[in-house]
Design brief:
binds zinc ion, 466 residues, single chain
């Protein structure tokens, strides 16, 4: 095996071809395991030789990192966490000893914003950036992107690698790229004007942004289905694209199909978890690009298909700043599904539906905000936004209040009057109890009460004392 792989930069399939790489995408899973093992052997050998961090990290492991024999041996390497990266980058700024190329050979510098702690830094070499473009082009091909499409990237162009990753895939595939951005004052109104004028066929952003764009369009007298020309949308950054009711809402609002995508910025090519043209919610794991294991959140041991756990990701063709067995902190369930696309990858059947840290435990029951979103969006009176307020009740029991907007048409009086909405509130309460298995309090709010987000929605308000 030639490692790292070199891909011809000018290849694209014929437009009617289903797969970018028929061999890699449809091989029997046991053959794929052999292929992945060969790539990981090279990858781990490479970091062990070139990265001071991994040399130290793997000092006492029970296997030989320079000569792994099986995927089971690979699974005995320690799991890497965000904390490990932060600590390493504090001690050896700015990249930590992860960097396996010379600093002057870094082509792109990205990172996380550090909203939950010290920012982390990623140095990406040119060869790696090209391979990221190749991987994303291949996956977007599976999502249905073709050269005659125009892709509007409506997300912030900054440190955030999501937008750039969405862009480089479209560029490599040869589609027309429209890097619109988002986040500046008035920019969503301009997005409505531009989308009406140049009629891009594809949108990249977050599910929250798509809903916000539709709301803004309607306020401007523009019909998102009639006046735009979106054929499909691909999303990352939030669970919404695999939340059934949110998915239906976006598809009906724009008259298009949507594809859920995304692992983590650190793991770019982050599209290695991605739906396809046919998958109705959920994401295939394109295992030969980034290898995903599912592990138990407590024991950290590998889980078989069918189980719910935490995805752990490994680069398989990264030379600049490789991440091996990186703990995502997300919660998902994986299984084999019989997708009409014919790919033989395992699938995160309901996408990534929560974070280990966001999991709310109410009276012993695990509750994910994405599940609550699904219930609310299925109710006709729901006004579009919600918040979850967590408080510590008596006896250290956590109490959850769902604050949900209701549409104006749900009440007949001029003013918002919670007393007149008692029957609506009771129905919201009953539906939530039925879906999540425990009672929660519901407070209704007028539509527009909560701020609309153009990026990742923050819907949990945690009032519990630490
Ligand atoms: Zn599929």
């Amino acid at each position: 095996m030639n490692w790292p792989p070199q891909y011809p930069g000018d290849f694209t399939p014929k437009p009617d071809q289903k797969y970018w790489s028929p061999e890699l995408e449809t091989m029997p899973p046991s053959d794929r395991d052999r292929h992945i093992l060969a790539k990981l052997q090279h990858q781990v050998h490479y970091v062990f030789r070139n990265s001071g961090f991994y040399q130290e990290f793997y000092k006492d492991v029970p296997v030989d990192p320079a000569n792994l024999k099986t995927l089971e041996e690979f699974a005995q390497l320690p799991i890497l966490t965000k904390e490990d990266i932060r600590r390493e980058q504090v001690e050896h700024p700015p990249y930590g000893r992860f960097l396996c190329i010379e600093p002057e050979d870094i082509f792109r510098l990205h990172g996380t914003s550090g909203t939950t702690g010290r920012p982390t830094v990623f140095g990406i070499g040119k060869d790696d950036w090209d391979r990221i473009g190749e991987a994303h082009a291949r996956i977007l091909w599976g999502a249905g992107l073709r050269r005659d499409d125009t892709v509007m990237v409506a997300a912030v162009f900054s440190l955030y690698v999501g937008s750039w990753g969405a862009l480089v895939g479209a560029e490599r595939l040869g589609a027309t790229s429209f890097p619109f951005g988002s986040g500046a004052p008035g920019q969503t109104e301009r997005a409505v004007e531009w989308a009406t004028m140049v009629k891009p066929t594809v949108l990249y952003g977050t599910p929250s942004y798509a809903l916000y764009l539709a709301e803004t369009a309607r306020q401007m007298g523009v019909d998102p289905k009639e006046d735009f020309g979106f054929r499909f949308m691909y999303f990352s950054g939030e669970p919404g694209a695999s939340v059934p009711a949110t998915r239906r809402l976006i598809e009906e609002t724009f008259g298009c199909y949507i594809v859920d995508q995304g692992t983590m910025a650190e793991m770019t090519p982050w599209m290695s978890a991605s739906g396809c043209r046919h998958l109705d919610g959920g994401m295939h794991l394109w295992q030969d690009i980034v290898y995903t294991e599912m592990v138990d959140p407590h024991s950290k041991l590998n889980l078989p298909l069918g189980e719910e756990g935490v995805p752990v990701y490994s680069h398989t063709e990264r030379t600049s700043q490789p991440m091996i067995r990186y703990w995502s902190g997300d919660i998902a369930r994986w299984d084999m599904v019989d997708c009409p696309c014919g790919r033989t990858y395992p699938t995160l059947v309901a996408g990534i539906y929560g974070r280990v840290d966001d999991m709310i435990i109410v009276r012993g029951q695990n509750v994910f905000p994405s599940r609550i979103e699904d219930v609310l969006r299925g109710l006709v009176e729901f006004g579009g936004e919600f918040r979850l307020v967590l408080e510590r009740g008596t006896g250290q029991m956590d109490r959850l209040t769902v604050q949900a907007e209701v549409l104006n048409k749900a009440f007949t009086s001029q003013e918002f009057d919670p007393a007149a909405l008692e029957s609506v509130r009771e129905r919201f309460t009953a539906e939530l109890r039925r879906a999540i298995g425990v009672s929660v309090a519901v407070e209704l709010k007028p539509a527009g009460e909560f701020e609309r987000t153009q990026f990742k929605a923050r819907r949990i308000i945690d009032l519990r004392k630490p």
